[in-house]
Structures are given as structure tokens and as C-alpha cells.
Amino acid sequence: GDDGRTYKQLPVDEDEDVEERLEPPGWCLTGHQLLDSVQFQVFMTLLIIANGIVIGLETDMPDAFPWSIFETGLLFLFFVELVLKLVVWGPCVFFDPEGQDMFWNVFDVVIVGSGAVDMIVVSVTGRPSGSVMTLFRLVRLL
């Protein structure tokens, strides 16, 4: 049926292969290669382990070190990973309900988003946010 919208027909070069038109740009292919690489997966796993260690040390020795430096750095790296996935895969693939990683992608958005909100609240109020965010960060270890 007619939805009332008009669509412009884009010119197609008859000599152009359809697969060439559908191939993603080079930066996107590089992004996919990075995200799928064993090195990147190992790096992100080590960051998650480091996050767990920092949580444990911060809990046992809260005054031994300015732990917020590590927390901010780790949050930044998790944020970069999240943005990289959103840009390379696109939001439709990232949040695809039938995608195999959809649960973990949404989980990461919640955890990283909560961490960012926590950091902003602490920055604005100057007061620690309490154990709720520590719980979220611990769940990230899963």
C-alpha cells in the first residue's frame, strides 16, 4: 500500500557488482577484525579480572590507594569497548533480540551506564555512592 512517502531511486552503475555495494567500509572491517581477535578478547578478559582485583583491594584496604583512579580508567576502557561495538556492529545488530550476544550487550550497557552515572553523581556530590554500584561492578565479573 501507499504510505504517503515518496522514495528516490538511487542510480545504479550497471557494471558495479552488487556485493561491492554491500561491502562495509574499510574501517568497519578493521573494527570487526579487532573485536573478533583473540588479543582483544584476552585484553578485555584481563580488564574484567583487574576490575575484580581492584574491587577486592578497595574493599579490604579502602585508604591504601586512591582507587578511583583505577575505577575511572577501567570504566573508560569498558566504555570505549561498548562504543566500539555500537559503531562497528551498529545498534540494530548490537541490540538484535535474536543475536547470540544480545543479553550480554544489554547487560554491558546497564553496567557501564550505571558506572558512568555513579561517577557523575560522585563528581557532583563529592560523596561516595555506596554499595549498590559495587554490587553492579561485581556482577560485571560474570
Layout of SSEs?
Blueprint: H1 18-22, H2 26-36, H3 38-60, H4 68-89, H5 91-94, H6 102-125, H7 131-140
Helix pairs in contact: 2-4, 3-4, 3-7, 4-6, 6-7
Describe this structure in words.
- The chain has 142 residues and is mostly helical.
- Helix content is 70%, strand content 0%.
- The chain is built from 7 helices and no strands.
- Helix 2 (26-36) packs across helix 4, helix 3 packs antiparallel against helix 7 and helix 4 crosses helix 6 (102-125).
- The radius of gyration is 21 Å and the shape is elongated.
- Mean pLDDT is 80; it is low at 1-8.
Protein traits:
mainly alpha; disordered N terminus; elongated; 7 helices; 142 residues
List how many beta strands DSSP finds. 0
Main pleated sheet: none
Q: How many separate helices?
A: 7
> Rough shape?
elongated
Rg estimate, integer Å: 21 Å
Roughly what is the average pLDDT, rounded to an integer? 80
Q: Determine the strand fraction and express it as a percent band.
A: under 5%
Helix content: 55-70%
Distance between the termini: 48 Å
Order of helices and strands: HHHHHHH
Structural class from helices and strands? mainly alpha
- Residue stretches low in confidence (pLDDT < 50, at least 5 long) are 1-8
